[in-house]
Amino acid sequence: MTDTARSSATLTTIAPALRAAFERLDYTADGLLRMLGADAHAALGRGEPVAVRRACTGELGTLVRLLLVGDVIAHQEAAAVLAPLELDAALAAGLLEATADGVRSAIDVRPFDIGSGSRWVFADLDESMRIVGTRPDHVLGVGEASLSLLRATPRDPVADAIDIGTGCGVQTVAALDHADRVIATDITPRCLDFTRASLALNGINPARVQIRQGSWYEPVADEQTDLLMANPPFVVGSGTIEHSYRDSGLDLDGASELMIRGAADRLAPGGTAAMLASWIVTEADWRSRLASWLPDHGVDAWIVQRDIADPALYVGTWMRDGGLDPRDVEAQQVGARWLDRFADAGVEGVGFGFVFLRRTDEPSDILAEDLRHSFDDPLGDEATAYFDRVAWLRENDVRDARLQLTDGAALERVATIDPDTGWVDVVRRLHRADGPRWVHEVDDSAAALVAGLRHEGLPAADVAELLAVATGVEGFDDQALDELLTGLVRHGVLRPDNTR
Ligand SMILES: C[S@@+](CC[C@H](N)C(=O)[O-])C[C@H]1O[C@@H](n2cnc3c(N)ncnc32)[C@H](O)[C@@H]1O
Q1: Would the pTM count as exceeding 0.85?
Q2: Domains of the chain
Q3: What is the DSSP letter of 424?
Q4: Residue 133 banded pLDDT, cuts 50, 70, 90
Q5: Cα dihedral across residues 161, 166, 171, 176: positive or negative
């Protein structure tokens, strides 16, 4: 490498050689898990360098200690594991920094895999392995929130996608597996530089990605897309900005409101949005608050509340995230102002979750629901299936349909003892075994009805009528039957034969 090439080295220019080193040593999501084993891999996720270091072996181990643990590695050893990337170029590009005894990482670069092989992204170092300080325009790495949006994004093939607040480019890189083109936006030039470098690291043709700087929807004001993705800076606070990756500058849940209000207009007909959001929970129903941000016509919405934090827990968590020590007197003033703002606004909790939207040409159908229990299946495919079921319900009379319980559905019975008659069922719950594992409480009649439904059998209303005659128990009125079946179809517990 010439002196000129070395001095103009950037993360983007060194990306191809770095990727070659990664492939040579199997610095991939699977490769790391194989070398570290499950326990040390979990320790890596928790930011515990000691356990990770002990599991590092061979050249891959040296590379992991250099790039992920934050160890100082001697020049010769570092040069060997980075080849064909030259050590001088890695230093010149800012990937590494020199110390008295060798080199160490100055940028985070790590693999992630959402099921289609390893991809890599550059980001700023976080504080998990080494105390480094966090700059105001810190480029966030692949954290829990990024991964949760990756898993919640529908992966159906699309022509166009938009990624608002792209950061290190993680959502964009993943979307290019199933989208022909992506527009990636961010407010900070540093994030956009890192996104360019992440694209180069994955060998992605830059012509497939437009990188645009600007705030919120401003850079895509004239666009309509098939897929809108956003993991915005949604921290609910008092409107100050300390770190652009988390603070929006808008009061309380203003960032989520702005993103949700503006999303439908950015979607092409049939287009889908998958976003993370956060909202205040007050005495009023949080569902109505979120629904009020959506239009009455033209958008189906599925809003999933995954968690609620009480104000003290919320403020404490985000203060620690921002490097504030709750024991520090100045930090305590920040916390006090934050909690005062929450008290003024009557905030009893802060909800967090996913907002899925689909653009339609129909009156809006909005469901906001609490799904705070644990489940493992990703929500991306479920969101597509959910909107397909909503469309089916719009076009069909559910009582006339031939329905059937989805595979794996189970009935749970809870009984208490009656001294005269023995066990008496007090609750019956119908469970879906996959997806978000929805649970519906049902009575005896509903349990018997769903057991009798078959795709090749009679329409649901006829089965209900026959059941009433056979058991002598009064059947369902039209509205009750409609509500029961609609709820179960909406959640995929009952399926018409032509839906997912
Ligand atoms: C939570 S990070 C998400 C990064 C990445 N998309 C991910 O999923 O990990 C939020 C990103 O939004 C960017 N951002 C902050 N304010 C913004 C604004 N007003 N408009 C657009 N992007 C903004 C930040 O720079 C940051 O990259």
Answers
A1: yes
A2: 3-106 (no CATH), 144-393 (3.40.50.150), 398-496 (3.90.930)
A3: E
A4: confident
A5: positive
